[in-house]
Amino acid sequence: MADSYDCRSIRNICILAHVDHGKTTLADHLIASSGGGVLHPKQAGRLRFMDYLDEEQRRAITMKSSSIALQYKGHAINLIDSPGHMDFCSEVSTASRLSDGGLVLVDAVEGVHIQTHAVLRQAWIEKVTPCLVLNKIDRLIVELKLSPMEAYNRLQRIVHEVNGIVSAYKSEKYLSDVDSILAGPVGETGDESQEFVEDDEEDTFQPQKGNVVFVCALDGWGFGICEFAEFYASKLGASSASLQKALWGPRYFIPKTKMIVGKKGLAAGSKARPMFVQFVLEPLWQVYEAAMDTDGDKKFLEKLIKTFNLSVPPRELQNKDPKVVLQSVMSRWLPLSDAILSMVIKHMPDPISAQAFRVSRLLPKREILDDDFANSDVIAEAELVRKSVEACDSQPESVCVAFVSKMFAVPMKMLPQRDVNGEILNNYTEGGNGDSDECFLAFARVFSGELHSGQKVFVLSALYDPLKTGDSAHKHIQEAELHSLYLMMGQGLTPVASARAGNIVAIRGLGQHILKSATLSSTKNCWPFSSMTFQVSPTLKVAIEPSDPVDMAALMRGLRLLNRADPFVEVSVSARGEHVLAAAGEVHLERCIKDLKERFAKVNLEISPPLVSFRETIEGESLNPFDKLKSLTGNSNYIEKTTPNGRCTVRVHILKLPDALTKLLDDSSDLLEDIIAGKAIRAQDDEHPVESLKKRIWDAIESEISDTNAEKDREKYKLLWENLLKRIWALGPRQVGPNMLLLPDSTTEEDGSSVLVKGTPYVSERLGFVSNSDESEAKTSTSAEIRSLNEEADSLRSSVLSGFQVATGSGPLCDEPMWGLAFVIEASVSPFVSETEAIHQQSQSDQYGVFSGQVMTAVKEACKTAVLQKNPRIVEGMYFCELNTPTEFLGAMYAVLSRRRARILKEEMQEGSPLFTVHAYVPVAESFGFADELRRWTSGASSALLVLSHWEALAEDPFFVPKTEEEKEEFGDGSSVLQNTARKLIDGVRRRKGLPVEEKVVQFATKQRTLARKV
Ligand SMILES: Nc1nc2c(ncn2[C@@H]2O[C@H](COP(=O)(O)OP(=O)(O)OP(=O)(O)O)[C@@H](O)[C@H]2O)c(=O)[nH]1
Ligand SMILES: [Mg+2]
């Protein structure tokens, strides 16, 4: 790179939006005007240059984020186009991590949608500076035929709504996207209140500030308010600065006095329109009328061309197609790329100013523990590295730090054949496993120093800790040599010798070192960048096997490559030895399988139906909170199991946790994992995460009795829970699930001859519900026999724990994990009754396994039986679904929804458009092929987006058999086939897992015989 390196003239930006709102179309125009000739302006908007994959062109949606380097007025702009489809939302995370600014697009007709919420949230999390682009303004004129005033109201409402979303993120950081949508769209305040929203200094997006532009990406025109302010300044005799403030909101121009007034300054009955309508929208509408109407005023166009001195070729102006005329005039009058790129340069930060405030997100300050002071050198250097990232220090000699946000595969033949110096390269020389035609490149940004080809760097995984040395630390750090660096031009790659801080590059040579993302550094004494957050996790799972078993090795290699090439896919081997592929949704899954078949494995594959996961729980809804808690006490409310050798008796009480608490445990699993692992957790902003988690635990518990008004009851309930929260020994399954293992109440008596296996309230301690317990005071007066029994009981703690973990990992209904249950496990060990028994111990071990194993099994069995005894229920995943459909297809859409057991939440006509928006919950188990079916039944006019929302217990009893006369009347006596959905789901899973299923082939033999006789 040249010596006149000026970091201040760089902008790294991404385009973010809901699916189909026009991101790639917009990118086309920016590329055509500033991409150095890679795209001809004539093709812009139609080619969709950044959608270079076949599959993207075929489906007309973007599936990955990709970058292109642009040059505009002395600025270097790295533009990343991202996908809007929910299945590829992980690519939004990888794009926003590398960007400092984000163009948030909203379709002016469709308005704010579910992914608009999600991308705004991602930008907020990653501290990306957003600007708003209201796209498809042409549709307001041509399609909806709105008047300028109506269009203004609509645009204002969208700006208001987007501002509302951002301010919600600012105030309530933990609100999930679905929650915020359900909380009700912020923008729906009705027209009359629109007047109050203007001039709110707090608002993020304000057209008068210049960070909102109005565009038509298809035809390549767009403008911000400043373009018009400058034009009218001389005409109206006002400064362009004051006009800029007046061209949005309720500001009116009085021609007589040449004054700009607010609403109050208007004479009664005045027909004045807001200045934005009068001076901006009306001329625009006039141009459209002049060009599109057959009897349009062609003179008007000529006047416009003359006033603005536009060089429109006469050939285009005389074209018979009014659209061509319009596009030709509009794109010259208000060029889209100028409107967008001048806003980018003015309102989006350069890397130096951006990194100064993004560093707190990228490299959060670490808590330094006292015993780390021995490493003060390391700490000091790591602090210097952080400073260097904060300053975006681009001097070649300073420490080099880069972040790889994803790996992507390109076919070998796509790599440039010549290097920077024009020498022919042998691309195949690189080691690797040599068995693939694919080359893996890292999508990276340099945050400090300079990267150059041939450089050796350290690759740090997210778990790396520079303060830890030793074997475990080595796993998280590797040394790698950068093979070559490329500037990305969409699909094209231009070799560069080096890349300095503030730039986005593709790096070759890290394929063997990085799986998904990593931090690169020239020193070991550097903290890894914080992990990226993903909006959803891959939930759609299928099992894959080769059609021909001999291709197994090819499949395994293919899966390995796919896992590397796709930032989001998860590849695993199930307990039953199947290769399982997890994707974000159907479209993503389809692309993964296509890639696997055609690029990575190149063999025929058999794909199983989707493996839907379920959870298991017990009935809880119909009970009042106090009755639930009663199940923890009482002498009949437990399940008892004894080990085969008779020495350990396990009693289990079970409790259904409040749903809100279960959800909280599920949602906070990452934080809980850190807390339970004993990691130091830093306060963010003003609140400590552990304290806020505790507060939310209490909120969740209290929400259970919010409708019980009696203050006394509330207090009593809280006291009961206070006691429980002090007794949490573990969470499960796998240490952080939504199930609790509680210690027995301390008042539980021991009957002298046996000893309880005593756990510790470990999780309660970590969460700070109890102070670190001093081990129960040693009983000095006990006999040697009891002492040894106590020791034995202590050694059995881990058996109780594992029994609990295994049981919660696979419930009794269909081996799926348990959900929202608390178990109190009392395991008491008694001594050998006689010596002969002790002698028999050995032979018993042979028969039943070692004692600890027997205890574990007994605990596991007791927990599972407890679930079966307390009205077990199956829990299924629910998607939150947003559907858009024209009114005439509403009926067909509801038919599809009802076939899929959907629950409608909200239906709403979109003002000023023929579209209906419907929100619903759809069970995951019913969601496959949903989008396809919907498209078929509504002739492609409806669209649906699904986001995984929550778990929900099916109220239906899977073991329901009609018993009373009434039930028999309603459900029949069992001779007709019962539609028990819960049972059907359970049987489906059991069959898939090869577990026994009770299937009655002949249900009522007597009836069949009767029938037979009649024949
Ligand atoms: N009328 C009109 N149509 C537009 C405009 N901009 C884009 N479109 C159309 O909207 C559709 C979607 O455009 P894309 O650019 O592919 O949308 P996208 O946001 O990149 O979509 P994804 O990448 O799949 O999320 C295409 O059919 C475009 O022609 C516009 O300003 N006016
Ligand atoms: Mg796109």
From TrEMBL:
Keywords: GTP-binding, Hydrolase, Nucleotide-binding, Ribosome biogenesis. Pfam families: EF-G_D2, EFG_C, EFG_III, EFL1, GTP_EFTU. GO terms for biological process: cytosolic ribosome assembly. Residues 8-240 form the Tr-type G domain. It comes from the Eukaryota. GO terms for molecular function: GTP binding; GTPase activity; ribosome binding. InterPro entries: EF-G-like_DII, EFG_II, EFG_III/V, EFG_V-like, EFL1, P-loop_NTPase, Ribosomal_Su5_D2-typ_SF, Ribsml_uS5_D2-typ_fold_subgr. The keyword Lipid metabolism does not apply. The keyword Cell division does not apply. GO terms for cellular component: cytosol; ribonucleoprotein complex. SMART domains: EFG_C. This is Elongation factor-like 1.
